[in-house]
Amino acid sequence: MINPRPADSLDKGAGASAPAVYRVRNLRKTFARHSVTALENTSFDLPRGSFTAVIGASGCGKSTLLKIMAGLVSPSEGSVMLAGKPVLGTRSDIGMMFQHAVLLPWKTTIENILMPIEIQRGKSAAKAKRADAEALMDLVGLKGFEDAYPSGGMQQRASICRMLITEPEILLLDEPFSALDELVREHMNMELQRICLARQATAFLITHSIPEAVLLSDTIFVMGSRPGRILEEVKIDLPRPRTLDMMLEPRFAELVAYIRNRLDLGVNHGN
Ligand SMILES: Nc1ncnc2c1ncn2[C@@H]1O[C@H](COP(=O)(O)OP(=O)(O)O)[C@@H](O)[C@H]1O
Ligand SMILES: [Mg+2]
Question: How far is CA 234 from CA 87, 126, 224, 254, 259, in A?
């Protein structure tokens, strides 16, 4: 762990002294069919309002970990508690976002985005949220496509809007921005931070982008492969709110270089 926060900044750090929302204990996951140990010896707490990113080579078990946290996959051993209860099945307080978006092709783009609101709170609530949906669409470059049916290139951006519209308290994000171009991606990063701060949301983001992880996180989990496990938890001591300008600061570059180095070690150990 490098440069831990000084003790007097703990209270200001997002969720640093808050109670844990997630308690993950001794997870192990083996896929019997291929006798692969996807995850081993994995334990951590996520304080309320904290932002954690996970970075690691392909196949090291990141998505498996996230699916276990979502209650979509059961672990071979260990437990996941969310707000004091075991996670089971899907819950409406968890917003999830995967790399490949699934939208309803017979609904327009904005109808898809408003769908979770309509399901949770009804048609008139969805109507009332239309302006918010339009603002999100503008942000991801979908302005003007409200009433179009979602086509290939629009799906990912629309599904990001669909997740953010509910402003969920828990965000489990599996490489949601990897298909976006850099400028849109940076806007989405800032929007994600805004929503997390406004809602005191707890976020868990899998990403392949080290700068994205450093920009957004309080803590970065560096994962190693075979078996998948957390090699190191790196605290990011940049002040909040983060701004895109911070990416130009020497401290930012230092943190990026540090993580890159840790990741190389992880890959080498895994081979
Ligand atoms: N449903 C499954 N059945 C068998 N093996 C799986 C399954 N899901 C994942 N794996 C294996 O578990 C390991 C971790 O996969 P995954 O969690 O998807 O990694 P990552 O998201 O880090 O790329 C890989 O070796 C993968 O092949
Ligand atoms: Mg994955």
Answer: 26, 40, 14, 12, 8
- Per residue in 245-255, pLDDT tens? 999 999 999 99
Ligand nearest the Cα atom of residue 223: 1
CB of 36 sitting under 6 A from ligand 1: yes
Closest Cα to atom 9 of ligand 1: 64
pLDDT given for residue 7 in this prediction:
39
> pLDDT tens digits for 141-158?
899 999 999 887 788 889
Q: How far is the CA of 227 from the centre of ligand 2 (A)?
A: 15
Mean pLDDT (whole number) for 156-163: 87
Over residues 83-104, the pLDDT tens digits come to 888 887 656 667 777 766 789 9
For residue 82, give every residue at least 6 positions away whose Cβ sits within 8 Å of its Cβ, in sequence order, or none. 21, 22, 69, 91, 94, 170
Name the pTM for this structure. Answer: 0.85
Q: Which ligand is closest to the CA of 65, given by its number? A: 1
CB burial of residue 241 (10 Å; 0-12, 13-18, 19+): exposed
SS3 2: coil
C-alpha span between 237 and 240 (Å, rounded): 9
Protein residue with its CA nearest to atom 1 in ligand 1: 31
Q: Give the domains, in start order, of the chain with CATH numbers.
A: 1-6+18-93+169-248 (3.40.50.300), 100-167 (no CATH)
What confidence score (pLDDT) does residue 167 get? 82
Using a 6 Å cutoff on CB, does residue 42 contact ligand 1? no
Q: Which of 28, 29, 31 to mutate to test the pocket of ligand 1 (most atoms within 8 A of CB)?
A: 31
